[in-house]
Design brief:
- The protein is mainly beta and 251 residues long.
- It has one domain: Lipocalin.
- It is 11% helix and 67% strand.
- The chain has a 10-stranded antiparallel barrel with strand order 1-3-4-5-6-7-8-9-10-11.
- Strand 3 and strand 4 form a beta hairpin.
- The protein is elongated and about 70 Å long.
- About 12% of the residues have low confidence.
Length: 251
């Protein structure tokens, strides 16, 4: 086991040990299941560098991606007493084009098609539940994949025109906290922060916003930031960020 995974494993054990101690100390809670499903829209900006294995060509998604063709985003959670399991799935398909080289004797136009999945799976424990604050300690896994098809028109040195494809896949362990600051019976400030490592040298995610709660429905507006630091391979670094608008159905 490499040092990154060993360090993360130790942190995860510490979090689980603390939650087990808290479970032993708390008063017995009545058995009760609660579920939540939250479809949402994420107005993303993608920034970073993809090498694509092409000499002399560096592709920046923020320059090329202008068209979101398809997106499917949903989050779901199940709670039993103070324990919870949460799954968040983000699927994005986008394309764009730009001129990546413009010289005296030659120019190169590029068209980039990107398809990506981000899947976060967490388990955790509700460590704090008060009139002002909800705090869950979580441990989990983050899977990220991005398939890229780059079409070049023109010529650049020995690189001929054509379509070049590559795929990056990352699996990381993460630990963090999530919950909400309660402003009253209906208004609240949701938050989420986690960090970890694995196939990426470092990955972290943060989210903060404002929400309004009905009996069975929550309206949420927030800002979410997701980052990967890979330092090698197809993808050197990648950030996906932007505002979120969502609905959460509670039952």
């Amino acid at each position: 086991m490499n040092k990154k995974w060993m360090g993360l494993f130790k942190v995860g054990l510490a979090v689980m040990a603390l939650t087990c101690i808290a479970t032993a100390q708390e008063e017995k809670q009545p058995d009760q299941w609660q579920f939540g499903v939250a479809p949402y829209a994420w107005f993303t900006t993608i920034e970073g560098n993809m090498n694509m294995g092409l000499p002399g060509v560096e592709v920046s998604p923020d320059d090329l991606l202008s068209n979101l063709e398809l997106g499917a985003l949903v989050s779901g959670e199940a709670r039993y007493n103070r324990w919870l399991v949460m799954l968040d799935v983000v699927y994005l398909k986008a394309s764009g084009n730009d001129k990546v080289y413009d010289g005296t004797l030659a120019s190169v136009d590029a068209e980039l098609d990107v398809e990506s999945w981000t899947v976060d799976l967490y388990s955790g424990y509700n460590a704090v539940q008060s009139e002002k604050l909800i705090l869950d300690a979580v441990v989990g896994l983050r899977y990220f994949s991005m398939a890229n098809d780059l079409t070049l028109k023109g010529s650049l040195g020995v690189l001929p025109p054509g379509t070049y494809s590559d795929t990056a896949e990352l699996l990381n362990g993460v630990v963090g906290v999530r919950g909400a600051v309660l402003l009253g019976k209906q208004w609240f400030l949701p938050y989420h922060l986690d960090a970890g490592a694995g196939d990426a040298q470092f990955t972290w995610q943060g989210m903060a916003g404002v929400g309004y709660s009905f009996n069975w429905l929550e309206l949420i507006a927030a800002y979410r930031y997701l980052s990967f630091d890979v330092d090698g391979g197809t993808m050197d670094s990648m950030t996906i960020s932007g505002p979120i608008l969502g609905l959460k159905f509670v039952f």
